Hints:
alpha/beta, Rossmann fold, 7 strands
Amino acid sequence: MIIVTGASKGLGAAICERFIAEGYDVFGLARDVSELNFDGQACDVSSYDQVKFIAQSLKKNKAVITGIVNAAGIASMNLAVTTPPNITQSIIQTNLVGTIYCCQLFAPLMFRNRCGSIINFSTIAVALGLKGESIYAASKAGVEAFSRTFAREISGFNVRVNCISPGPINTDLLKGVTSKQIDCMVAQQIISKQFVPSNVCDLVEMLLDEKSSSLSGQVLNVGGV
């Protein structure tokens, strides 16, 4: 079974659709699962109690977890000095703390079988220092730092942890971002083109596969920086 957070939209939904089509057992988590057409459950990853409840349920049902994809995330394009404190808190709590909660509580479900792959999501805004994304980038920089260290902590269980760091992908996260801003971001990538969700799904598939068993603690920047 592969657990995918943020499964109802954006990259999370694209990842779920890809792996379901390929015959994987996918379990989606999202705040709103009313439109999911596959197995899933409502869960706000920023709530430790909600994530813990899901983990306990999976453990009770003896679910065999082979992969965790932490795709849940929110963004707000705004200068740091004009970002309201509730937005700051929400971004940090969902993107960073939510990822930590899911790793803390779901990773042990893979320890018994001594195999598995965890994929966390960062953003190219971390490497590029994009104006207007300081708080979003800070939350994702935390994800990168956590992932590198967490990879070392659980390596003895043969469970790998890596990050995917997309550039501007055409999902809900780009709402409110102008075409000029997108062009500016793309221009700073080594491969100066805007990628699509399927490109990210390709990387997810690679990192979940045992063919990438030599990779852990890494950040893969989509488009290159």
